[in-house]
Specification:
Distance between the termini: 51 Å
CATH architecture of the largest domain: 2-Layer Sandwich
Radius of gyration: 27 Å
CATH topology of the largest domain: BirA Bifunctional Protein, domain 2
Number of strands: 19
Strand content: 15-25%
Number of domains: 2
Largest sheet: 8 strands, mixed
Length: 424
RNA sequence: GGAGAGGUGGCCGAGUGGCUUAAGGCGCACGCUUGGAAAGCGUGUUUAUGAGAAAUCGUAACGGGGGUUCGAAUCCCUUUCUCUCCGCCA
């Protein structure tokens, strides 16, 4: 959510930013916000005056009662009746203005960083880096879902039986490889200075609102109705919400956390060839990195997160590329996002395996995540997060790219975690 | 699931209708004192929002929401969370 002060002072810059996102009716919406804000503030001022008046009278009444001048007190009492009605009326108006204003603010996405290219869809994303050799596979090389069956390491049917589509069962060396990847990612993140945390997989409403999944994206989360809790679609929610309603000191920066969690996504309405096998699941594992930064240093932090993820893919020797997302593809809350895509040789297509973003103050505003700056004033912090990495598609790419006629090789860096060097 | 006790500022903790945005203590900051340090003494120390160049002033906030009252941290209703005991349980 953008701050009102920012909207008031930067209308032109906002309109330019929204144009890059192809946001329709930008000027109308912003004008409405400004208009509502003026209305809200004048109502507020009027209400404050009324309350000030009635506070003053109340104090007088108190004094008069004490000195026994009951009649005088009763006279003043009558006056306060009117004030009370007026303040009730104004309070109602104010809360209507406020909620209408909030509804408008919820519609406005984050303003893109100047680096974000114009564009409508994923076709317009900018490839800024590409690395790693695409292996030449032997004849008869298989997509990962066939490999999974052939070596009996992932059982989609069994998952269907016990839960439904999108909930695979990992077996034997498949399960061990998953565990190895998680341990390896966490170790890499710890080495890079991220503090490992283990978090709840269920979140309450306040947390969902804090990071922006609620109120309008509840359809994408699994909901436990009896207790009104949601299964997390990403560790970003619990970890970022550590800092909800928190006032930090400048010396607390940088804050770097990493968490492994399963993630649950309803993904309603996505079917077809592109969701086969591990490509899109309802439950998957992910290791996440989350940072809270001083606004002056958040873009440095974003670059270092990108470098960090790069390092992992280099060690795994997987072919990947980095995209800078265009305005049309950029997430609602993000100011700048880099996507990592892994080339899946047997499917002959790129798979998204990580998304690293700077949200600037957009999340912090809703979270009320602030710090005391050098001048002693409280100021919104910047939040960033990224995956390092999402497991299923890394696993898919690994199985496909490392397959040989004799079996699937395990990347060297993983072998000490798996305890074996080949799936056969 | 049953019974009970509680949620007050960065922390501890007082406070059952007006003198309480909140005593006292701890912590923190600055100053005095000192050869230096400790101790001691003094001053200051919540957030949000509106007005103002600023000093400052108004308003709101004692878990959340609602009510009673001229006036609520204090009384009533409701909700949520925490703790203790019992039950169940990896």
């Amino acid at each position: 959510m953008l701050t009102l002060a920012f909207i008031r002072e930067n209308k032109d810059a906002i309109l330019k930013g929204l144009a890059i996102r192809n946001f329709a009716n930008a000027e109308k919406t912003i004008d409405k916000v400004i208009e509502k804000d003026i209305l809200r503030r004048s109502t507020q001022a009027e209400l404050d005056e009324t309350l000030a008046e009635s506070n003053k009278l109340s104090k007088e009444i108190g004094k008069l009662f004490k000195s026994g001048e009951v009649q005088k007190a009763n006279l003043i009492k009558e006056k306060t009746g009117q004030l009370k009605e007026r303040s009730k009326d104004l309070t109602e108006k104010l809360s209507i203005h406020e909620s209408e204003l909030n509804e408008l603010l919820y519609l406005i996405p984050n303003i893109p960083n100047p680096l974000v290219p114009k564009g409508n869809s994923e076709e317009d994303n900018e490839t800024i880096f590409e690395e790693g050799d695409i292996p030449k596979l032997h004849d008869g090389a298989l997509p990962h879902w066939e490999l999974a069956k052939k070596y009996d390491i992932i059982d989609f049917e069994l998952g269907n039986k016990i839960t439904g589509a999108g909930f695979p069962v990992y077996k034997g060396k498949g399960a061990k490889l998953q565990r190895a990847l998680i341990a390896y990612f966490l170790d890499k993140n710890s080495e890079a200075g991220y503090n490992e945390v283990q978090v709840p997989l269920l979140i309450n409403e306040a947390s969902g609102i804090g990071t922006g999944q609620l109120p309008d994206k509840e359809g994408q989360m699994y909901h436990c109705g009896i207790d009104n809790l949601y299964l997390i679609p990403t560790a970003e929610i619990p970890v970022t919400n550590f800092y909800r309603d928190v006032l930090l000191k400048e010396s607390d920066f940088p804050i770097c956390n990493t968490a492994y969690t399963p993630c649950f996504r309803r993904e309603a309405g996505s079917y077809g060839a592109h969701v086969r096998g591990l490509n899109r699941l309802h439950q998957f594992d992910k290791v996440e990195i989350v940072r809270i930064e001083h606004p002056d240093r958040s873009y440095e932090a974003l670059d270092s997160m990108v470098d960090h993820v790069k390092g992992i893919l280099q060690e795994l020797k997987l072919p990947y590329r980095i995209l800078r997302l265009c305005g049309g593809d950029l997430g609602f809350t993000s100011a700048l996002t880099y996507d990592f895509e892994l080339f899946s040789t047997a499917q002959d297509r790129w798979l998204e395996i990580s998304s690293v973003s700077n949200f600037e103050t957009f999340q912090a505003n809703r979270l009320k995540l602030r710090f005391k700056n050098a001048a002693g004033k409280s100021q919104l912090a910047h939040t960033l997060n990224g995956s390092s990495l999402a497991l299923p598609r890394v696993l898919a790419g690994l199985l496909e790219n490392y397959q040989t006629e004799d079996g699937i090789n395990i990347p060297e860096v993983l072998q000490k975690y798996t305890g074996f060097d080949m799936i056969d």
